[in-house]
Amino acid sequence: MDERAMTSALWEAAKAGNTAEASRLLDAGAPVNRKNHANNGVTALIVAAEHGHKDTVELLLDRGADLEATDDDGSTALVFAASGGHKDTVELLLDRGADLELRTT
């Protein structure tokens, strides 16, 4: 599987909350911080946070995901998790040091 296919599969695993598949893809070399410019520049971390998949968010952070990465509008994983009402995911992101003062553009 080439890097583009692995990246796409990682975004899908993040969206579905398939932590085991995300781990397998990362082990195979999928880039953890690649942005999906066809979908407003989101990263796998943002996608997992948006859908409230705490375990997948934790995996991505453990594997080096950029906690403060933003989409094309300047929103972070914390913004997406909070907007979706995903309290456990918000708490995890805050525990990991997400910046409450970071402003969206």
Automatic annotation (TrEMBL):
The keyword Repeat applies. ANK repeats lie at residues 40-72, 73-105. SUPFAM superfamilies: Ankyrin repeat (SSF48403). The keyword Chloroplast does not apply. InterPro entries: Ankyrin_rpt (IPR002110), Ankyrin_rpt-contain_sf (IPR036770). Keywords: ANK repeat, Repeat. It comes from the Eukaryota. PANTHER family: ANKYRIN REPEAT DOMAIN-CONTAINING PROTEIN 29-LIKE, ANKYRIN REPEAT DOMAIN-CONTAINING PROTEIN 39-RELATED. This is Uncharacterized protein.
